[in-house]
Design a protein that fits this description.
There is one protein chain. This protein is an alpha/beta fold. The protein folds into two domains: 192 residues, Alpha/Beta hydrolase fold, catalytic domain (Rossmann fold, 3-Layer(aba) Sandwich), CATH 3.40.50.1820; 47 residues. The chain is 42% helix and 18% strand. An eight-stranded mixed β-sheet has the order 1-2-4-3-5-6-7-8, sandwiched between helices. α8 links the parallel β7 and β8. It is globular. It starts with a strand and ends in a 7-residue tail after the last helix.
Length: 262
């Protein structure tokens, strides 16, 4: 089904009956990558998933968004579908949204599972700093070319070549407007949210995760008041690589909450 939320047409799926669980996918993905989790949890739970704006079958953000806007849309969906308080299972970018939502609206969230959760910024090393300086210098030169009459097209091609050389894979895959949203998202450090997350939190991390390295999971375990970390052999998509194990652990963790309900 489709819902109009925050001015965007959003694709939503629901399956199963029972206590509410909300699945949040990663950047550049869609509900499809959460289907295996949804199928495994739908027996005894009502599982809701949706495509974030700019992903899957949903519309695009009406302007460049950051994490707060994505979280506000998620809050609106939870309230529209009467899911609160719900459990949230989130991967990668979905973890960013969850950290903001759980810290700003704890009444909406009962329990949290983050797998390869994003949101923490590392201090850049010297190699990264040098690369950033080189990119800024070359981009300035490309912009100067664009100010020469008749060379605007050449300038745009130069800037895109720089993006393809220096940008991340996620950034390169986007069009210019969605790149503005991506930059707003990744530039926000959500570490200040961690101490304010009141929900019991399970962290499931691949030991070889390069997109959200294991230090991020360890930091979340340390700074979220009620958190536990499970590490497994695997990459950023460890939850898919070990789907059966992941969903068994998640189900066990979430079923405990039945005893908390009056």
């Amino acid at each position: 089904m489709f819902l109009e939320l925050s001015g965007v047409k959003i694709y939503v799926q629901q399956r199963g009956q029972g206590p509410d669980v909300l699945l949040l996918h990663g950047w550049g993905c869609s509900t499809k990558l959460m289907d295996g989790v949804a199928d495994a949890l739908a027996g005894g739970m009502r599982v809701t998933s949706f495509d974030f704006p700019g992903h899957g079958q949903s519309g695009r953000p009406p302007r460049p968004w950051g994490v707060p806007e994505f979280a506000e849309l998620t809050r609106e969906l939870i309230e529209r579908l009467d899911l609160a308080p719900c459990d949230i299972v989130a991967h990668s970018f979905g973890g960013r949204v969850t950290l903001w939502l759980a810290s700003e609206h704890p009444e909406l969230v009962r329990r949290v599972v983050l797998t390869g959760g994003a949101g923490l910024r590392a201090e850049p090393d010297e190699k990264s700093k040098a690369r950033a300086r080189a990119y800024r210098r070359l981009r300035t030169a490309a912009e100067a070319v664009g100010r020469v009459p008749g060379l605007r097209g050449a300038s745009e091609r130069l800037r895109e070549a720089l993006v393809q050389r220096y940008g991340s894979a996620d950034y390169r895959a986007l069009d210019p407007e969605m790149r503005k949203t991506f930059v707003r998202v990744v530039e926000q450090d959500l570490r200040p949210c961690l101490p304010r997350v009141q929900a019991p939190t399970l962290l499931y991390w691949g030991e070889s995760d390069e997109a959200t390295p294991l230090w991020m999971g360890r930091t979340m375990e340390k700074e979220i008041p009620d958190a536990g970390l499970v590490t497994v052999p695997g990459t950023h998509f460890a939850y898919l690589e070990r789907l059966g194990e992941f969903t068994r652990i998640v189900r066990c963790f979430l079923e405990d909450r039945k005893e908390e309900r009056p």
